[in-house]
Each structure stands twice: as structure tokens, then as C-alpha cells.
Amino acid sequence: MTNESLPINDVVRRTGLSARALRFYEARGLVSPGRTSSGRRVFGPADLERLHRLIILKQAGFSLSAIGAILDGGGASLRQVVEMQIAALGAQRERIGSAQNSLRHTLSRIDEGERLDAATFCSLIEQGTRIVTEQTNWKELTDRYLSEDAKSDFAAADTRRHTALPDFDQAEYSSKWEELGGKIEAALGSDPAGEDAQALLTEWEELLAPFLSLATPAMTRDVQSMYADMPNWGDDAPNPGFSPEAWRFIERVKAART
């Protein structure tokens, strides 16, 4: 053994890695220590440097396959590897954020004095998860249709809403849309110019009033385009409370009024 080579026990002390981890990394081809005449592993300076880089990359969240590609300089470019890792960490952050929001929803119920057994606790977490999932689905959908101007306007409008509409209740608002959507479904075969259909349009416009009071032209334009394309939203799309048929019927009722 040369003075520059270290046995596995010394490498364990220097790197903080276990002997089992070192053997595993060797099996994965991430490090290739030398061998003594008796078959014992020895690690030279280059092996130690490679292990230190491996540790840094693993702490940054890279997978072992990505680490191997980076250390060997082959496969995907470094830029591609980093971009993939950013995307992976972003997805992980969203999952963590979803879990946090679910727990905050549960905590709010506890703070309201609700006594929770295990079944209720799990039910609340599940309910919170559904709410967060719905919010995520809406974001994914609006990202497809809203221009950057509209997204910026929506962010500003959301800030103004807390001042302009302090008593606004999103759950109650969504419930009203579902109720109206049911009424429209029942009236799909009626005359768009008829009294009943026009009354539904009036109710529709009343429900839209909170949005229209804050909406910019970009917001109105992009939202109109988004709902006009409802049949192409996909299976995971959120439920706005009404069907594409109900939307098209209301558009015909509007045309009949004018």
C-alpha cells in the first residue's frame, strides 16, 4: 500500500460515509478503489476527491444516476442535468407545500375547538389534500391559457380583493356556481330568448360581479378564451361548477339578449 492510499476504515473517518455506502457506490460504478495484493480496498487522492464531489451532489438532491453522469462528464450535458434537477426539486417543493397546506387546514379546525379522533383527523387531512389538489389543478389550467399580463393582473387583483371584498367566501362562492350550473343544465333545451333563460343569465352576471369588479381587459379576454375551450381541458381539469354545455348555452342566451 502506498502512502497516498487509504484503507476503507480511514476513508469512513474522513468522509463520514459508512463502509456499506462505499461498497454500494463501488457496485454502482461511482467510485473504483484499488486493491492490495490481499484484495483489500484502497482509495487514492483521486478517489477521495470523487467521493467528496459525490457527497456534495447527493446533498444537493441529485440522483445517483445523475451524479454518475456529472462525475464522468458523459451522457446529458451539465446544463440538462441541472435543469432536470431544478424541475425535480420544484415538484418536490410542491408536494411538500401541499402537505403543509393540508396540515394547516387541519390545524385551523383544531384551533376552532374541534375535538379530533384518528378517523376525523385523517378525514380532515384528506379534505385539505383535495382542496390543495383543486388549487394545483386550477394553476396548471390557467398557466395554459393566461398571458403573462393576465397572470400579473390576477396577482394584483387577488391583493386588492382582500380589501375590496373582505367578506368574500370562496367555498360559498363555488357552491353558488355549482347550484347555478345545475339550474342551467335543467334548462339546456329551453329558448335562449325566453324569460327563464334570461333570468339564468342575470343570475350568472350577478355571480360574475366580484370577478368583473377587479378584472382587467387581459384577465377578461384570457378567461373567456379558457372557458370557451372547456372540452379540451383534460381529465384532471378542475370543476368550475358548470359543464361546457352550460357555458355554450349561456353564450347563446347572451346573444339572444343583444
From TrEMBL:
The keyword Signal does not apply. The keyword DNA repair does not apply. Gene3D superfamilies: 1.10.1660.10. SUPFAM superfamilies: Putative DNA-binding domain (SSF46955). Keywords: DNA-binding, Repressor, Transcription, Transcription regulation. Residues 5-73 form the HTH merR-type domain. CDD domains: HTH_MerR-like. GO terms for molecular function: DNA binding; DNA-binding transcription factor activity. This is HTH merR-type domain-containing protein. It comes from Pacificimonas flava.
